[in-house]
Amino acid sequence: MKEALLFEILRRFAGISLVAIGGANAVIPEIHRQIVDHLHWMDDRTFVGLIGVAQTAPGPNVMIVSLIGWHMAGPAGLALATLGMILPSSVLAFGIGRLAHFHTDNAIWRRIKRVLAPLAVGLILASGAVMTRAADHSALPILMTAGMTLLTFRTELNPLVGILAAALIGLCAGRLGIALP
C-alpha cells in the first residue's frame, strides 16, 4: 500500500513538472486540482496551511511539493515528490536550452520565448485565484486578502509584513477565544 502511494506521488509530480512554466507557483492550481479535488489526499485547509509554510520559509517555491510529499508519506514522500517535480522539467529544460543555444537566430525560437512569458504570468495569477478560493470563505479573510493585494500593488511594502500581521491577528484571536472563519 505504501509503495503504491509513493509511486503515485512520484508519478503525479513528474507529470505536473512538465507543465511548470514559470516555476512551482505557476502549477499550484493543478497541484490543488489533483491533490485536493481529485485524489482527496488533503482538504483545502491543510493545502493552504502547507502553502503558507512554504511561502514564508526561506528557499525555493518548489518547497510546497516537498511539504505535500512529506505530509502524505513522510521522508520518502518528501524525497519522491521533490524528485518528481524537479527531475523531468530539469532534463527537458536542459535539452531545450541546448537546442535553443544553437538556434538563437531562428524566428520560431524568438516567437516561442515571447509566448512563454505571458503564459507564465497567467499561470501564476491563476495560482493566486486558486489560493484565494481555497482559503477565503468569509468576510474577514476576503477583506484581508483584498487589503494585502492592494498594499502589495500600491506600495513597496514587503508582503511578509501582511503575512506577519495576519498571523498576529490569528494568534490574538486564539488567545482571546475568538474563532476566526
Total count of domains: 2
Elements, N to C (H/E)? HHHHHHH
How many DSSP H or I helices? 7
Total strands: 0
Question: What general outline do the C-alpha atoms trace?
Answer: globular
Oligomer: single chain
Arithmetic mean of pLDDT: 86
Report the C-alpha radius of gyration, rounded.
19 Å
User: Which stretches of 5+ consecutive residues score pLDDT under 50?
Assistant: none
Structure description:
The chain has about 180 residues and is mainly alpha-helical. The chain has two domains: about 1-135, no CATH class; about 135-180. About 80% of the residues lie in helices and about 0% in strands. It contains seven helices and no strands. The chain has helices spanning about 1-15, 30-40, 45-55, 65-100, 105-135, 140-155, 160-175. Helix 1 (about 1-15) crosses helix 4 (about 65-100) and helix 3 (about 45-55) crosses helix 4. The longest helix is centred in the middle third of the chain and has 39 residues, at about 65-100. The radius of gyration is 19 Å and the shape is globular. The chain starts with a helix and ends in a 6-residue tail after the last helix. The model has no long low-confidence stretch (mean pLDDT about 85).
What are the salient characteristics of this protein?
mainly alpha; 181 residues; 0% strand; globular; 2 domains
Topology:
Elements: H1 2-17, H2 28-38, H3 44-56, H4 63-101, H5 107-135, H6 139-154, H7 159-175
